Amino acid sequence: MAGLPRGRNVLLSSPDKRPKRFGTVVMNDATPTLDPDLEVIFTPEAIAGRLNELAQEIATAKLENLLVVAILKGSFVFAADLIRALHRVGLAPEVDFMTLSSYKKARISSGQVSILRDMDLDVRGRNVLIVDDVLDSGRTLAFAKDLIAARGATTIRTCVLLDKQLPRAVNLEPDYYAFLCPNEFVVGYGMDVGHRYRELPYVGRVVRQ
Ligand code: IMP
Ligand code: MG
After folding, report:
1. CB 150 within 8 A of CB 49
2. How remote is the CA of residue 102 from the centroid of ligand 2, in Å?
3. Tens digits of per-residue pLDDT, 110-159?
4. 205 forms bridges with which residues in the sheet?
5. Which of 122, 136, 175, 192 is labelled catalytic?
6. CA gap 23, 148 in Å, rounded
7. How distant, in Å, are the alpha carbons of 11, 30, 141, 202 from that of 102?
8. What's phi and psi for 57, nearest 5 deg?
9. Is the CB of 101 under 6 A from ligand 1?
10. Which of 6, 133, 170, 181 could make a disulfide contact with 142, Cβ separation 3.0–4.6 Å?
11. pLDDT tens digits, residue range 90-104?
12. Does ligand 1 lie within 6 Å of residue 185's CB atom?
């Protein structure tokens, strides 16, 4: 750093001229960067606290040889945090993934669920916990449950981050859920609209497009 004045703030590179997607409202180090197009519904702290409770609930079921099946893409952040919460309560689940599609790009369910990428592990004789982000019509979870049952799992439980509590298209209620969710399209914490917002550490509703 020869030649630079010492003890002062020195601009080492030119200011970043790229457009900013976020209007930052920094309240403290733990406050996430807020997107002006979103309103926070569940904060990172609320989610973390609730996941610890959920893990305790799941642990009381004493599921031997537990296999967590995360439904991608939307549940990847939730599943990642949930398995670490399960570890903290002494469980050691195996984990697999299945990519299902029902929404495509639209916000309205097409009603048809398809497997985009199947899981690898054999579910025969296993206690399976299916993990998904949102329970809405119930079609996605019902599809996954039926498939895993047909493949010979011993027990199947379902766990969702958000239960929308709408009249379901199928008869299915989750065994575990983190939060009841308002009947609005939500994003963040793994969930997207048009591939955006998955990276956000909170769950929010879109208030501007
Ligand atoms: P269901 O099949 O109608 O129950 O819809 C569940 C699937 O739709 C979930 O796996 C989500 O990926 C997606 N989904 C439903 N509601 C939302 C939402 O508000 N935001 C993001 N994804 C959603
Ligand atoms: Mg999904």
Report:
1. no
2. 7
3. 678 999 999 999 999 999 999 999 999 999 999 999 999 999 999 999 99
4. 39, 186
5. 136
6. 44
7. 49, 35, 11, 23
8. -60, -45
9. no
10. 170
11. 999 999 999 998 755
12. yes
